[in-house]
Amino acid sequence: MSPRRNRRAPVPGGNARRRVTVAEAGEFGLLDELLPALPGARDVLVGPGDDCAVVALGDRRLLLTVDTLVEGVHFRRGWLTPRQLGRRAFEVNASDVAAMGGVPRWCVLSLAAPATTPAGDLAAISRGVAAAAVAAGARLVGGNLSRARELSVALTLVGEAPAQPVTRAGARPGDLLFVTGSLGEAALGVRLLRRDPDARGAPVRRFRAPRARVRAGALLAGGGLAAAMIDVSDGLLQDLTHLCVASGVGARVELSRVPCSARVRHAGRLLALAGGEDYELLCAIPARHRGRVERLARRFGCPFTYIGVCVPPPPRVRVVDGQGRPMPVSAAGHDHFLGRRR
Ligand SMILES: [Mg+2]
Q1: C-alpha closest to that of 140 among 153, 129, 152
Q2: What is the pLDDT of residue 338?
Q3: Residue 15's pLDDT band (boundaries 50, 70, 90)?
Q4: How many A from CA of 281 to the centre of ligand 1?
Q5: Ligand 1 centroid to 232 CA: how many Å?
Q6: What is the pLDDT of residue 11?
Q7: pLDDT tens readout for residues 36-61
Q8: How many other CB atoms sit within 10 Å of the CB of residue 325?
Q9: What is the whole-number distance in angstroms between the Cα of residue 96 and the centre of ligand 1?
């Protein structure tokens, strides 16, 4: 296309209506605009808006999800080795499959990079994806390469769904809220890496090498114990708000019960509430299943902690202290278009 044709033609009547940018719409405003336009079908059991789509293929049910890691947005080059970046790309997708109670099976990788990128880096990213996939019982089966201004790693993952996939939408007032593992450590790692790209220690390791809670998710779904589930990728309060909106319930979280390390408590508990990057599972469990779920959790390979309860709508999350008094915290987690660059 010639430079002349590339120039935008003047609009008759002038440019009175300025276009809303994606930054102004925000990630969730943009999704509100994009999603209703997608036609459904009988074999689409769960469409957009959950951790994965669920589709039927014969009598099998598959989970579909995609995630992209972009240089300068999700990471800086010096923060992870190429192999760690590849592993991370797999785990963040596997976390969405885990949140439906499924197991990862096949993935395809799309790598985009500047022409100056060492070829060995792209090979190492691919090997990282392949190794993480094998460790989870899945396989990297193909992909695509493209030139771009920044390095980006996009992975599409297909998972096998359980008989009853767990969505975000099944929670009811009175259900108990539990979370796997501990929160805030990876966000603390990001904070440390921003100050010093050579930072070391547990928080940095947690950012570099998240592990999707596939076993816990599959056991919860298989036992029919979880009424609703989501993975905590954008911060506990934001992801819990998504679960509440989808389920039409509110939630009350006891701050002192939110599991986090002494390091995170020292750095500020807001990291555990709104830091993001945790890739833990948050689920709503009907109160009658409490005993069964606590026995089952011994097989998760990670802590499984009660943090609060679902309450009647409106779908709002309140954080309370040990005496039940409301605490002033913002539910702001990560918005992919409003969030700052890294
Ligand atoms: Mg998710």
Answers
A1: 129
A2: 54
A3: low
A4: 9
A5: 7
A6: 44
A7: 778 899 999 999 999 999 999 999 99
A8: 7
A9: 5
CB atoms within 10 A of CB 24: 12
Q: Which residues contact 46 (CB under 8 A, 6 or more apart)?
A: 52, 53, 54, 165, 167
What is the 51 CA–ligand 1 centroid distance (Å)? 4
What beta strand segments (E) does the chain contain? Answer: 44-46, 53-57, 60-70, 103-113, 139-147, 152-160, 176-180, 228-232, 250-254, 280-285, 304-311, 317-320
Which pair of structure tokens corresponds to residue 219? 């056991």
CA of 5 to the centre of ligand 1 (A): 42
Token look-up 């605490």 returns: 327
Phi-psi region of 238 (alpha: psi -120 to 50; beta: other; left: phi over 0): alpha
Q: Is 190 exposed, middle or buried (0-12, 13-18, 19+ CB in 10 A)?
A: buried
Distance, CA 9 to ligand 1 centroid (Å)? 41
Q: Report the residue count for the chain.
A: 342
Reading the block at residue 61, the tokens are: 């049910």
Whether the predicted pLDDT of 17 surpasses 90: no
- Predicted confidence at residue 331, as pLDDT, reads 46
Q: What are phi and psi of 279, to 5 degrees?
A: 55, 40
**207 has pLDDT over 70:** yes
Cβ contact 244:316 at 8 Å: yes
Q: How far is the CA of 146 from the centre of ligand 1 (A)?
A: 26
Helical packing angle, 82-98 and 214-222, nearest 10°: 10
81 Cα: distance to centroid of ligand 1 (angstroms): 24
Q: How close is the Cα of 82 to the center of ligand 1, in Å?
A: 23
Which tens digits make up the pLDDT trace of 72-118? 999 998 999 999 999 999 999 999 999 999 999 999 999 999 999 99
What span, in angstroms and rounded, lies between the C-alpha atoms of 288 and 158? 33
Closest CA relative to residue 155, chosen from 138, 134, 140: 140
Distance 262 CA to ligand 1 centre (A): 26
| Mean pLDDT estimate for the chain | 91
The 8-class DSSP code of residue 47 comes to: -
